[in-house]
Amino acid sequence: MSTTLRLRRLEMLVHIARTGSFASAAEALSFTASAVSQQMNALERETAIVLFERQARGVRLTEAGQALVRHAEAVLARLADAEAELATFARDDRAHIRVGSFSSATSTFVAQACERFRLRHSDSELHFVDGEPHESIARLVARELDVAVIFELDNWPAHVDYDGRSVVAEPEVEYHSLLDDPYLLIMNRQDSLAPEPELALEQLAGRRVLVSAPWQRDLEAALERHGIDVQLDDSCRGTGFEALQAFASGSDALTLMPRLALGWLRSSLVARTLDGAPVRRVKAALLPPAHRSLISGAMLDVIKEEITEASLDGGYVRDDGQPSLPKPAAA
Question: Could you tell me if 53 and 60 are in contact, meaning their C-beta atoms sit under 8 angstroms apart?
Fold first, then answer.
């Protein structure tokens, strides 16, 4: 390898592509921002190619930079495979499995599946990492995870972060459908729509709806298809559901929340089924078979078992009228 394309620079480049800034990449790699900037300046100077477009807030990769990132990800992934294989010769014979998931899936079935896996495979060692779908996909591609429970929407793939940036090039991973997780309409208990258990998109006409990534695009597309005029308010941004709930609780605004997240629903609010609402497609992401450990398949089987058993409640509606767990996705 030439001194120009040394591994540390490639690793920095990949982290910059994922985070969109030198500072964030530096923090992830335990470097100073100036050190990362100097290394990237040296990389551009020695390759005689412009890799970044400097902007007021961060950087954007040029076409040449994106091409180099794809090669860098492939190189780093193969090295991670080699290190993992060599590590098996240096450690004990216990199988190791690394699982990632997003919070609402973890709280409803992933944590239980991990415990079931530990009991069934007591000779194995399991590690868990919480993260948003794009974070888990990035970790999977970097060989930091073996199984990632993620979700996608029709207009939002899992490898895109909530600012709309792709954290990795089109990932070479294998997806397995687990369940469909529809968004529900959230409102105050005193709202005029609250008495109705099921609502249609048309009933949102003229109302203010607090929206946020990643489901905003899907709701906008559904409303446009049906020609419904709704006041979409994107002034509140948050990765969780607490902020939108707080604003909805103190006003007459509506918002949406996925069914798996009902455990976080405020007591002052109610959730109602909304026909035509966005749907999270919950999936398990694994590496391609050539790079996958046998125990990854065992973990996937346990996750599917847990979902099936957790969904055996007959009506998918709680005693208090609130919707409950979603049904498993069709095979």
Answer: yes
